[in-house]
Structures are given as structure tokens and as C-alpha cells.
Design a protein that fits this description.
Helices cover 70% and strands 2% of the residues. It has 215 residues and is mostly helical. The chain has one domain. Helix 1 runs parallel beside helix 7, helix 4 crosses helix 6 and helix 7 crosses helix 8.
Length: 215
């Protein structure tokens, strides 16, 4: 009994993180934040930077929403959450060009549009406003990592097929004929649809295995 009581909180913390990677993945399960998912995933670098920026805003805003959840009036909670999120989006919008001006130009207005990403506002309303700081950080890390992994996977497919490169390193050689459609807006829908099918297949396969074990 003592072992169960000690390991139970650790398992709960692990589940809080892992649910954003798999069971409640923001992109492949909840299909949230589609604007950056479809717009900036034409290269792996753009996808990675957008994912990390989103994770930074998500974790930072979750900390503040959780810390002040008992003093924020219910009537103005959404406006307060947006103000908190916008503050950290502004920080990210200044940090990215300081690191790489080229990447910031590639991302364009989509860095500023993180403020209206429903993944962040949704976690603030559904989780951070109801849970302590530690648990909110774990939830934000899981959701942020799940979002980042998802858009990087899209970026890999689109850059690989559209340019024949990954992070600008040639993969297929000089004779490869790029699929130009993959770096165009339409290619984002093809890549997203393919990954949604793969993700759904893995989930269905996992459910079948669990049912077989239970039987």
C-alpha cells in the first residue's frame, strides 16, 4: 500500500504530461491551432521555432493564470487571460528576430497571432484556472510539446517532398524533382490529412490491443 501511495502522484504527473503528446494531442486529436499548423509548416525550421514559441507562451501564461486564478474576477477572466497571453507573445515576438531575423520574416504575422491560438486560451480556461501551478506547468509542457512535435512532423514532410531537404540539408540529391505543391498552402492540407490518418491508425491499433488483452 505504501508503494502505491508514493508512486500514484508520480504516475498522475506523468499522465498529465503525456496526454498532450498522445491522448489529447492539440493537433492530431483536438485539431486546434490550425492557422499556424497550415501556414508556417513549409519548412522544419519555421515549424520548430513556431512550436517552441507557442510552448513558451503556453507555459508562461499557464503559470500566471494558475497563480492568480483565485483573485481574477470571473466576469473578466477571458480578457485577463488574453492580456497575460499577449504579454508573453510580445516577449516571443522580440526574442525571435534577435536570434534570427530571417526566420522571423518567414513567420510573418503568425508569431503575433499566437495570442489567439485556441490551444493556449483553451488550456488557460479549462486547466490552469482550476489547478495549482505545478500541475499547470506539467499540462502546458505536455500540450506544448505535443503541438511542437505535430507541426515539426508536418514541416518534415513538406520540406522533404517540396524541397528535397531537411533543415536545408539535401536528402535526395541533385536529381530530385521537388513536389512544389507541398510548399504551397495546398500542400499543408495533404500533409495534415496524411498525418491524421497515421495517428488515427496507431490509436485504433492500440485500442484493439487493449481490448484483446482485456478479453
Amino acid at each position: 500500500m505504501d508503494n502505491i501511495s508514493i508512486s500514484s502522484p508520480e504516475q498522475a504527473n506523468l499522465d498529465t504530461v503525456l496526454k498532450g503528446l498522445w491522448k489529447e494531442n492539440p493537433v492530431f486529436v483536438q485539431v486546434l491551432g490550425m492557422c499556424p499548423v497550415l501556414a508556417v509548416t513549409n519548412t522544419v525550421m519555421n515549424s520548430l521555432v513556431m512550436g517552441l514559441a507557442t510552448m513558451f507562451v503556453l507555459v508562461s501564461s499557464s503559470i500566471f493564470v494558475s497563480a492568480f486564478r483565485k483573485v481574477i474576477p470571473r466576469q473578466v477572466r477571458i480578457a485577463t487571460y488574453i492580456l497575460i497571453i499577449a504579454t508573453f507573445v510580445t516577449v516571443a515576438d522580440y526574442v525571435i528576430p534577435a536570434i534570427s531575423l530571417e526566420v522571423h520574416r518567414s513567420l510573418g504575422a503568425f508569431v503575433a497571432l499566437i495570442v489567439v491560438n485556441c490551444v493556449i486560451l483553451g488550456r488557460a480556461e479549462a486547466f490552469s484556472s482550476k489547478n495549482p501551478i505545478g500541475k499547470s506547468i506539467l499540462d502546458a509542457l505536455g500540450m506544448g510539446a505535443g503541438f511542437t512535435i505535430a507541426i515539426v512532423l508536418l514541416g518534415i514532410v513538406r520540406e522533404l517532398l517540396g524541397n528535397g531537404t531537411i533543415l536545408d540539408f539535401p536528402v535526395f540529391g541533385p536529381d530530385y524533382e521537388p513536389w512544389v505543391v507541398m510548399v504551397l498552402p495546398g500542400g499543408a492540407f495533404f500533409a495534415l490529412g496524411a498525418w491524421l490518418l497515421v495517428f488515427a491508425w496507431f490509436k485504433e491499433r492500440g485500442s484493439q490491443k487493449q481490448n484483446e488483452v482485456a478479453a
